[in-house]
Design a protein that fits this description.
348 residues, alpha/beta, Rossmann fold, Dihydrodipicolinate Reductase, domain 2, 2 domains, 6-stranded parallel beta sheet, globular
Length: 348
């Protein structure tokens, strides 16, 4: 299937690299507002360049559109792509509010096209093993379920685009744009959250509207409790791995990026030996993209895109469809609501 990319920045180029490496899809075209930026992408990656969105979407060879614009500018191109009959894959977050995501979901359903989100950290072997253990009930009663993203972004990161650090186009700060990966993984494994209380602040950056540090206390529908900590103000020379910790009365697992730091259950299972021999963290672990977003590899995106293509061909929903991608945004917005109102308890 042929992919076209909406957007002309770093993320658009990242999508192009992942599409070029994937099976079942090929890079076809780019759309951006600035001719110079589009020409640079085409020169580096091949394909056809457009600065006219209508002409880009009218191309009969185009099957799937990926959206790589700023977070709060995903809705309009998604609606236009759906109206043109193109399948839509959208970078995280799908949009910056649940209400805007609902508009995307409804438009794609009405047009009979697929809507998929990108949560590339779901697509690696350790996450597969983690989810399987949870689905099989190996943790017993879930008790503490936590997500920690202690990353660093320098001031230049926020200064690099006028949209960065704004509520309208960034949708938030350390939670919406960095911690969202771990928040998605947390609810993917531990299930839905019933209520939150939260606090946030901007402690180490200037000229931005959003938080660079946040903490939330979670009450899960399972009865478990948990914590989300997210920051872009935690300096480290190597970068701290983002960590997902799930504990129950029959097991504990701590995942650091894509390797386990702890894998421990009261009852053993055949896959435990494979996990311990192949998926445990080494002694020199560094955070993946913790200090530099350009350091993130595109393997997860490639697998995410391949899942979308196979789902379209099989006539099923993709692993991260619109409703699934909405869950993390809804939780983050509830955290923001609590934090903006003095830490009041907010139910989802």
């Amino acid at each position: 299937m042929k992919f076209g990319i909406i957007g002309a920045g770093m993320i658009a180029n990242f999508h192009a690299k992942a599409i070029a490496a994937m099976e079942g899809g090929e890079l076809h075209s780019f759309y951006g507002r600035r001719q110079e930026a589009v020409d640079e992408l085409v020169a580096e990656n091949g394909g056809i360049g457009y600065t006219d969105l209508e002409a880009f979407l009218a191309d009969p060879e185009l099957d799937i559109v990926t959206i790589a614009t700023p977070s709060g500018a995903h809705l309009e191109p998604a609606l236009a792509a759906a109206k043109a009959g193109k399948h839509v894959v959208c970078e995280k977050p799908l949009e910056v509010t649940p209400e805007r995501i609902d508009m995307m979901i409804n438009a794609c359903e009405d047009a009979g096209v697929t809507l998929a989100g990108i949560f590339n950290r779901r697509f690696h072997p350790a996450m597969e093993a983690f989810k399987k253990a949870a689905d099989e009930g190996r943790f017993g009663q879930l008790t503490l379920c936590d997500a920690y993203t202690k990353w660093y972004r320098d001031q230049a990161y926020y200064d690099s685009g006028a949209w960065r650090g704004t509520w309208a186009l960034d949708g938030g700060g350390a939670l919406m744009n960095q911690s969202i990966h771990l928040i998605d993984q947390l609810i993917y494994v531990a299930g839905d959250v019933e209520a939150v209380t939260a606090s946030m602040a901007c402690l180490a950056h200037e000229g931005i509207e959003v938080e660079d540090t946040a903490v939330a206390i979670l009450e899960f529908k399972s009865g478990a409790r948990g914590v989300i900590q997210g920051s872009t103000a935690c300096w480290s020379s190597t970068g701290h791995p983002a960590e997902l910790q799930i504990c129950g009365d029959q097991g504990s697992v701590f995942l650091a990026d894509d390797k386990f730091r702890v894998w421990d259950f009261a009852e053993s299972a055949p896959e435990d030996e494979v996990v311990k021999s192949e998926l445990m963290q080494g002694s020199n672990a560094k955070g993946l993209g913790a200090n530099d977003p350009k350091a993130i590899n595109f393997e997860g995106h490639k697998l995410n895109f391949e899942d979308v293509v196979s789902s379209i061909q099989a006539g099923r929903a993709p692993s991260v469809d619109g409703k699934e991608a909405r869950r993390a945004v809804a939780l983050i917005c509830a955290i923001y609501e609590s934090a903006k109102n003095g830490g009041v308890r907010v139910t989802l």
